[in-house]
Amino acid sequence: MSVSVVLSNAPAYAGGASFALFLVLLAWASAIDLRERRIPNKLVAAMAVLWLAVRVLLAAMAAVCSAGFGVDAQMGNAASAASVATMRVSPFGLTLGDGLVGALVLGGGSLAVSIAFERLAQRPSMGGGDIKLLAVVGLFLGWERGLWCLFAACLVVLVMQMVSRVREGGKGIGSQTFPFAPAILVGVVIASIL
After folding, report:
1. pLDDT tens-place string over residues 115-136
2. Cβ-count burial of 15 within 10 angstroms (0-12 exposed, 13-18 middle, 19+ buried)?
3. CA-closest candidate to residue 15, choices 102, 135, 95, 97
4. Burial class (CB in 10 A: 0-12, 13-18, 19+), 170
5. pLDDT digits (tens, 9 = 90+) for 17-49
6. 12: Cβ–Cβ under 8 A, 6 or more apart, which residues?
7. How much is the pTM?
8. Calpha distance 55→96 (Å, rounded)
């Protein structure tokens, strides 16, 4: 296999492998959220570091390959720095900017909606771990798929609330909290299929 074939397929391989590992970490966070009603910051940070590490690794590979093909070292380093921002990493072909916008839209949007809801309803809405997790989901999915994920996750929680209400004989559901990470996991799977 030639070096150019490996290089051209590296973003797809790295993106697919990192997304699979992201799903494993997200499933782990979901299990903890189900059991303890919290999402560990270390897991969320690990997901964000994974996303960034793939970008840095691919840029380093590009720099090494550029230097190996006789490209001027300074030019190779500049090219690798530029490739971090513009390289489209699979499985969704997202650039660095796509991921950052996704994190801002999902994380920032969720934070804004949560603050507004809490002020209007005078009760807690979404935990900080959920908001941070949604920001990381935005890194991996971008803003469009991220919004589909959020929509699907909200539907999952709505179904969970309706089932809980039926099971409890029609009692109010306003005081009951539900772990959101498992719903986010379902949302990620659905959004990745779309």
Report:
1. 999 999 888 888 899 999 999 9
2. buried
3. 95
4. exposed
5. 899 999 999 999 999 999 999 999 999 999 999
6. 90, 91
7. 0.83
8. 8
